[in-house]
Amino acid sequence: MSAIETTPTDAVPLLPPARTGSDLLRELFVGLLGNEATDAQTDDLAAQLRDLQVGMARFRMRYQFALDEVTTKISILREEFEQSHDHSPIEHVRTRLKSVESLFAKVARIDCEPTLEDIEVKIRDIAGIRVVCPFVSDVYWISDMLTGQPDVTVLEVEDYIRSPKPNGYRSLHLIIRVPVFLSDRTEHVPVELQIRTIAMDFWASVEHSIYYKYDGIVPASLLDELHKAADTASSLDQTMGRLRTEVRELGA
């Protein structure tokens, strides 16, 4: 059997060698600096980028640890009440750490320099926790128990339950500061704490969805309906709180 002859057009073309991360970075920096960019310039820019990434990761790390500290405190309270009392004042808990994109979007909106030092001073809601409670009285109960702990410092309180926002929004907002114990130092880190009832949380979730759908420009008719719904939610909270009080008095 004779060998099968192949022509150059039958040959399988060789794949180009895979580009490394350094190759991709160099292409990016050449695009930024121009084709005249020297190896030293691209290497310097790459080093600056790596330093920025490491610095931002370390910066956000302390806020994640602060979230862990506060959620541990809340978990202890929740478990204690589930074991020792007739009801738990905590329905559920959510945490949020601002993304880098969200963080710098806020930097652009407020009077804040785009430096980690200025961000640390002027933006105090990088770490956020939302605690949802069955009753209004539970909101203040949880607030008192958390802020009464010796390692918790209250920096700011905004009570939108007693003084709702014009659109009907209700919630108790606190900025607290907690110590974070690292290997070589202790950082005191702010955390935003939102405490609200189930009815308030449901209203806020719907309101957020509507604003997102309309890209912030909501028709006046919907705004009126939202305000009425906020009043209805507040009335429901008052009714349920009164019913619980009556049931407790009957059982006393």
Keywords:
252 residues; alpha+beta; disordered N terminus
What does this protein structure show overall?
The protein has helices at 21-33, 39-84, 100-109, 116-122, 136-147, 198-213, 220-251; strands at 92-97, 127-133, 153-159, 172-181, 186-197. It is α+β, with helices and mostly antiparallel strands. A five-stranded mixed beta sheet has the order 1-2-5-4-3. The relative contact order is 0.09.
- Determine the mean pLDDT: 86
Which consecutive residue ranges, at least 5 long each, have pLDDT under 50? 1-9
- What is the SS-derived class? alpha+beta
Total helical segments = 7
Overall geometry comes to flat
What is the strand tally?
5
Taken in chain order, the helices and strands follow as HHEHHEHEEEHH
Brief digest:
The protein is about 55% helix and about 15% strand.
Indicate the topology.
Blueprint: H1 21-33, H2 39-84, E1 92-97, H3 100-109, H4 116-122, E2 127-133, H5 136-147, E3 153-159, E4 172-181, E5 186-197, H6 198-213, H7 220-251
Parallel strand pairs: 2-5
Antiparallel strand pairs: 1-2, 3-4, 4-5
Helix pairs in contact: 1-2, 6-7
